[in-house]
Amino acid sequence: MIMERTDIPHRGYDPNALATISSRVRAALPLIGVTAVLAISGESLAAPDTASADCVTTQTADGVNHTSCQSSSSENCAITTQNGVTTNNCEPATAPKPPEAPSTAPPHSTDQPKPQPHEPHKPAHHPKPKPHHQPSNSTQRGTLDYYKDPLRDIHHLIGRRIDMGVDYSGYGNVHALGKGVVTVVKKGTSAFWRGEGGNVVVYRLTEGPAKGSNVFVSENCTPTVYRGEKVTTNTTVCYMHDHRPNIEMGWAQGGGSDKPAAWRVYTPAGNPDGSKTAYGVNFSRLMGLLGAPRGNTTPGHVSTNPNRTVGRIPRDFPRWLS
Prior knowledge:
The chain has helices spanning 15-32, 137-146, 278-290, and strands at residues 37-40, 43-46, 53-59, 65-71, 74-82, 85-88, 155-162, 166-175, 180-186, 200-205, 214-219, 221-223, 230-231, 236-240, 247-254, 257-260, 276-277, 309-310. By secondary structure, it is of the alpha+beta class.
């Protein structure tokens, strides 16, 4: 559709301004998709036939050009030129951008994971097995709980040699080592001890680490107990006289015998009288643990060969720290 307007006054028109307006209108028409021909002062402008539209350009008395268009595909719009400045509201509106969907990814962290402290490798602890002959601390504590020094009341006490037991000199009451039962009492009648006066007392321990073991007290010690009597650490088993042969104490064979446990490895085995036996060393250590003098500690009163020990004690026999 072509419309030509000839009723617009032509007074005071500037041809150059009109040409400028025409070019700007020509550039704006394709944006709104219309077909129009504008005739201003005899000048016709044609837009591409891309849509159907009606446009009319007028100039007001104050020199303002006004173009109005109506299209089937758009709303009314206007292009206005005043003092060489053109305003165009016919450009298609820019569609708003859809809002961005919130990100579900976790925020990126620039922090690096802290390295875990390195634990130094600790080798597994394997305790060294204790030698069979080494007593435990519990055995030592048990010794002090059950046993007491049997020579604690002896005057002028001296520890002498180690042989089948331990020899001591002095005088006074000799007590039982611990709780037990008397199994042998002989007052000057022991065939085995007749060369040393024939006196002997044997009692069996009934408590403590050495439970079941037998203790003998012999030679120059007069018995004060009877067979079958129950004794404690406060019981006096014999009275010790301070002259030769003094007394000997140690482990006995038991079973009603008055012989020392070390007798078999002593002179019958060819060892000289006064030899140091394993049983004698064991008993000396126990006496030292309880507070009495150990054997072989007095110069001139030691074993025949102090550096040599004969025999051995059973594997299940109690041991004591020296």
